[in-house]
Design brief:
The chain starts with a helix and ends with a helix. The protein contains 21 helices and five strands. It is about 60% helix and about 5% strand. The radius of gyration is 28 Å and the shape is elongated. The protein has about 475 residues and is mainly alpha-helical. The chain has helices at about 5-35, 45-55, 60-65, 80-90, 95-115, 125-140, 145-155, 160-190, 190-195, 195-205, 205-215, 220-240, 270-280, 295-310, 330-340, 355-365, 380, 385-400, 430-440, 445-455, 460-475, and strands at about 285-290, 315-320, 370-375, 400-405, 420. A five-stranded parallel beta sheet has the order 2-3-4-1-5.
Amino acid sequence: MDTPQNRNFFKLAFILLEIVTEQLRNVFKQEWDKQHPNNPWEDDNNSLQYFIQILKNGGTWKNNKSKVPKSGNRNDWDPTALFFMLLYSGALNLPAVLKQHIDKLRQIRNEYFGHPSTASLSDAKFQAVYKDIEVCMDGLNCSARLKKEMDDIRTGVMKIPEDYMRNIEAEMKKVVAEMRTVVALQADNNKLLTKLHFLQKLMLFFLVPLCALVCFSFVSSFMQSTMSSRESVRTNCVNMDIPVTRIGNSFGTYFPESLKPNYYVGHDREIDTAVSLLANGTYQIVTITGPPAIGKTATAITIAQELVKWHSFKVAFVDFEQLNVTSNQIEKDIFQEILFSLGTGFVPGTDVDPKQEFQTQMRTMKLNQTLLIFDGIETILDSKSKSKFYEVTKQCLSNNIKLIATSRKDFNIIGMSIHQIKLEPLSEPLSAEALHKMCPGLNEELVLEISKKTGGVPLLLELIGHLLQEAFYEE
């Protein structure tokens, strides 16, 4: 703790964790009061609850609730909480320049205090980092008092308390101990890594057919059980063996939540945007397109879950892959499928005309927030029944029903505005996150290799995850 390099490190720690943090607290209040003049931040629980309500209204509370500070007092917020509140919460619309400076400070904090290996910093490095911080603080309109404190720390006029340095050093020791634990865990997983070497080779040389190979040879039972679960929900709903929520004598909510995998990651921005647009009525239609196995159905159901939870939507799921799109009575079949999935009590095969019954039910649906998920519509888009499908869709939209359609190809309805979501493969970090959720403690080297070789295809990740669970986690 007595070397110049040690002193440089603790100077930087004090500047970042104390002085910069104070300025970030000031910036938050300034921007919040400017953008929410009727609800200025009062550093109390009322302000925090108002902030949480903003997240709920925007459909982002579920994903962010673990990141929200427990206290509304800014003095209790550490840098991690402040970076979330300022940059990622969505409650503030910061100017681009402010965002740039705050994010630069976040990067500096992460680089030198996220996973520090030693409490040491050369004079040249300290001066360079200090200059970067100084530029950011100027961009954030830092007060003269805080600037002087920074300069006093840099020049040594203001001494850092000994107990402060001891606390920082103690925190560093904790981090080092945690890193050693991780290394030990990786060493314990070497046996697993050896066992799975054959899987790496399969991915390297047979990536394209791997999904079908694994699906057929190893996890067919898993896929079959998933389909059985869907059919079971469908059958039970018809037989009323499970309760169906009723609104008066109207309709209920039916959609297979089990289709959303537990490890679902990625596409948060797209999901939040779709929830907001459908909830506030900016768009009636959201289309989710992309190649096979990219997660279209799971994303649609995730959006629906958010709308049900935070905006009291009633949701129905219509699986177009179960329809005979070449049938001469396809329009009737679509209406029957919608009526069934809405839990209206309509029984196919009776004398009741599905189209007429649909119009009757529409009068009730207008009084509620209703969402239909049309899943897998590419088959009907490629058939002669395409025009009839568009007619049914227009009738739904004319009755204020919201619609999410998943397809492998784009589609448009003349005269209707459509918000399009085109899903891309997951990035390697998100693929790794999914694997870690499915297979906790999996060797990091193997996780990175699988993430690269799978190309970010969610279904392939799911199949490999189940293969690993069945093959090795039982042991």
